[in-house]
Amino acid sequence: MAKETGYDKVNSLVDHLFRHETGKMVAVLTRIFGIHNLQLFQLEVVLV
């Protein structure tokens, strides 16, 4: 089994956080800027 490098650890952490925090980010942006911008926020979060 290959030893996990620092880059691999950071990459897996970013993947984990992105998957778990995406909904929260969209919810906060929608609360701040309104429901009429929901589709824009969803697109922006995916492109990040």
Give keywords:
single chain; 48 residues; mainly alpha; 2 helices; 79% helix; elongated
Blueprint (SSEs and pairs):
Elements: H1 6-33, H2 38-47
Helix pairs in contact: 1-2
Largest sheet: none
Mean pLDDT: 80
Rounded to the nearest angstrom, the distance between the terminal CA atoms is 32 Å
| Low-confidence sequence ranges | none
Shape: elongated
Describe the 3D structure.
This protein is mainly α and 48 residues long. It has one domain (8-47). 79% of the residues lie in helices and 0% in strands. It is built from two helices and no strands. The protein has helices at 6-33, 38-47. The model has no long low-confidence stretch (mean pLDDT 80).
Q: What's a concise summary of this model?
A:
This protein has helices at 6-33, 38-47. With 48 residues, it is mainly α. The longest helix is centred in the middle third of the chain and has 28 residues, at 6-33.
